[in-house]
Amino acid sequence: MRTLVISDVHSNFEALRSVTENVLYDEIIFLGDAINYGPQPLEVLDWIHENVKYRILGNHDNSFLMGQDPNCSLQTRDMALYTMKNITEKLLGNEDKNKLRNFKESIDTKIDGERVLMAHGSPYDDFFGYTYGKEAEIISTDKDLEKFSYILLGHTHTSQ
Q1: pLDDT in tens, 100-132
Q2: CDD domains in the record, alphabetically (predicted)?
């Protein structure tokens, strides 16, 4: 089975469409942050709802649902708060919030017989954990996580 893993689309439907139209896949895993920053939260959310099997809630998705600050970096905080108020909140209604409520904070499942853990941030902090450097080392040596063949995480905006 060919599985496409994506995350942190942040309301950029054109980028999402570009990625998904140019690869072959059987199923999609989405690791969070469907909304905020970009101009097309409705299109992104609808597409994910219709096409993605496994959906993880990111910190921006959760902050929208809870009416809270997404606690992002200082460099992007003003933009995040601005787009949340002036784009995301204006374009998404209750039905869209219900779609987001169906996303999971984390998923522990089997795919093709392999145990897989999915989260947005890290196995220790679903929304705000990062897997750079030391935390990546800790994850790789954590005995409690050895049961997983794969640990899939988003949030960093980098492939690792």
Answers
A1: 999 999 999 999 999 999 999 888 767 766 676
A2: MPP_superfamily
